[in-house]
């Protein structure tokens, strides 16, 4: 079962904090967004394996865009 | 002997040395601590040169900086141009998606009005009290705009107070926010905002201008420039103009604003005990504004299903986007998956408009 990680707010992708294929637990850092010159960390919604990132560093994302998939 | 009288040294007074030193402190804070450097650096330097003797820089009709001040600030040109740039930087989306949060921006103006009465009670004239109160709006250009028209003698001190407190938002606000909210309230996650259609974003600056200017005509200079800048941005057809007002024009006017405001702080206008009161009252205004914003949010929660995190009320003092960032950080401290930033931007922007309206009301009464 796959779970999508969505952007909680609009901003720019600053860095990816986890590696594709790695195991993540709920509340682990997935990536960091920048909005209004402030860093905002996006956390994993569940335990699982990070299947893929749908974005790359520097991308502009809108609220609710899918950032990554965890399965 | 005449030669020695021409030298600046012999005319230096202790007051000039002291005030000039304050200029140096601001320059230090700007460079070393990066407190609002774009403003405090030119302001600090302006203070420094204004306190060097025999320069005539601020001599009416003659001095270089006096000309910047006269044509830029007394003629009310620069603050509205800054607002033009701010408008082009502003995305009203967060405000339009949660219109009820506008009330929080209005509530935070409580600090302005409360301080107005307190300042008058401790002996300032009505005009001066209004100018001191507006510091609580935490909005530099608006403070300067109002001061230049009704209490020019306080302009320098009020502007420096407003900009210093804006830089100190992350220190001043959190203790008040913590005291007035419970852990549980800080954890409230707010319901998703709706998406704002593009048409709405185009119509907003036009409709807001018409409504606000009809209500408070004296706010027209600031509001119309603010909304024009925003219309440039949202229309998406004049990117060149948007870019110019956001960057080049904004930078140019910031230079002239900073140095002129600094130069108004000569020793004789600055070294009065009133100035200490202004700093205290300004801080008081700021704290009350933070509190009234939070309290209104809590009051609204009594009547609504869909709860507001009361922290966002604190963003009602303008200080864009610093106050919103503080709210976001405090929300994330309570619950790391609580993203309040965009919710806080709503009252934050409403606060800017609220402060302009408050200034317009004062102008209507006192000018």
Strand portion of chain A: over 45%
Total number of helices of chain B: 20
Beta-strand portion of chain B reads under 5%
Described by its quaternary structure, the protein is heterodimer
Unreliable stretches of chain B (pLDDT < 50, length at least 5) are none
Main sheet makeup of chain B? none
Q: Ends of chain B: how far apart?
A: 49 Å
How do the helices and strands line up, and which of them pair or pack?
The complex is a heterodimer of chains A (71) and B (367).
Chain A: E1 3-6, E2 11-16, E3 23-24, E4 29-35, E5 38-43, E6 48-53, E7 60-61, E8 66-70
Antiparallel strand pairs in A: 1-8, 2-4, 2-7, 3-6, 4-5, 6-8
Chain B: H1 2-6, H2 14-33, H3 37-50, H4 64-74, H5 78-89, H6 93-97, H7 102-107, H8 110-121, H9 126-134, H10 140-150, H11 155-167, H12 169-180, H13 183-186, H14 198-215, H15 220-235, H16 239-263, H17 267-270, H18 273-303, H19 322-334, H20 341-366
Gist of the model:
The complex is a heterodimer of chains A (71) and B (367). With 71 residues, chain A is an all-beta fold.
Feature tags:
heterodimer, A: 71 residues, mainly beta, four-stranded antiparallel β-sheet, globular, B: 367 residues, mainly alpha, 20 helices, 0% strand
Give a written overview of the molecule.
- The complex is a heterodimer of chains A (about 70) and B (about 375).
- Chain A is mainly β and about 70 residues long.
- Chain A is built from no helices and eight strands.
- Chain B has about 375 residues and is mostly helical.
- Helices cover about 75% and strands about 0% of the residues of chain B.
- Chain B has 20 helices and no strands.
- The model of chain B has no long low-confidence stretch (mean pLDDT about 95).
- Classes of the chains: A mainly beta (about 70), B mainly alpha (about 375).
